[in-house]
Amino acid sequence: MVLVMLEGKNVNLRVMDKKEILYWANKYDKDYSWWTQTEKELGDKLRKTQELTRDDLIRIVEWKFKDLPWLDKRVKSVSANDDENVRRISRDVFSSSSEVSQKMDSLQNLNGVGGAVASTVLTFYNPKDYGVFDIHVWRELFGKERRNEYLWTTENYLKVLEKLERMAKKHNLDVRTVEKAYFKKNYDESNQK
Asked: Could you tell me if residue 45 is inside a domain?
């Protein structure tokens, strides 16, 4: 257990060792084969073409919000983007050596793309250095969010990414592998209550 101070309160957060990370990441891959396969297909395509199309963006939104009630609304929102604009912005982001915050902000200029979707695009393109911004990962790393707290900011993603990067480096793993483990652990444990 690690004791950290959050919002003036002491919170115990558990840091996983490499064995636990690999256990939960493998469980994620096994339990979510559709997510894993879709991520691999889209990631391979993005790395090959060095750009994201509007249809790719729609698939990423469908992947991120699968089975959630606001999926249709989000798909409609990202569908309003001009394909050439999506391609241009993504080419700029993928080829850029700029800071993560600039990449996140650039992707969030697209209609219907917030922090969660922007992080997913970066993760699909480069799972070695990025992880998906998700409530389950946030809760596992920082504890329960405050009521009415808007989490999906670039600043909060950078906090998540910093912790994930540190653990990935310590255990010689991809950031995405560490992130999947924290997601799966929190998701499974919160659904057992």
From this structure: yes
Is residue 5, in this structure, part of any structural domain at all? no
Exposure on the CB side of residue 60, measured as CA atoms within 13 A: 29
Say whether 108 sits in a helix, a strand or coil: coil
Entry pTM: 0.90
Does the pLDDT of residue 21 top 60, yes or no? yes
Q: Which of 56, 58, 110, 109 is nearest to 79 (CA)?
A: 58
Flag whether 139 is in a domain: yes
How far is it, in rounded angstroms, from Cα 152 to Cα 165?
19
Torsion of CA 126, 80, 102, 88, to 10 degrees: 70
Residues 82-112 pLDDT 10s? 999 999 999 999 999 999 999 999 999 999 9
Note down the domain range covering 97: 16-191
Cβ burial, residue 161 (10 Å; 0-12/13-18/19+): buried
Judge whether 2 lies within some domain.
no
Q: What are phi and psi of 5, to 5 degrees?
A: -100, 120
Q: Which of 121, 125, 134, 191 has the alpha carbon at shortest distance from 164?
A: 134
Number of domains in the chain: 1
